[in-house]
Specification:
- By secondary structure, the protein is mainly α.
- It has one domain.
- It is built from four helices and no strands.
- The radius of gyration is 18 Å and the shape is elongated.
- The model has no long low-confidence stretch (mean pLDDT 78).
Length: 68
């Protein structure tokens, strides 16, 4: 999904109204999106516990991520 120019202007306008530093706001949005990405590809405790025996945790994470 790509952010349109009008959406960017709207975000800038709202940030200005709230007195927020737009650079900080954008960094916070990117951080939040990164957290969502991590949450989606990280297996739950139950999924990791039931993972293949003899494999390291990082391999279980990669297997789960590619299944997603």
């Amino acid at each position: 999904m790509k952010v349109t120019s009008s959406e960017t202007k709207e975000i800038d306008r709202i940030a200005q109204q709230l007195g927020l530093d737009i650079t900080v706001l954008r960094n916070e949005i990117l951080w939040s999106l990164g957290e969502v990405r991590i949450d989606r590809v990280t297996p739950t405790y139950e999924q990791a516990k039931g993972g293949p025996k003899g494999k390291t945790s990082i391999i279980i994470v990669f297997v789960h991520a590619y299944e997603f």
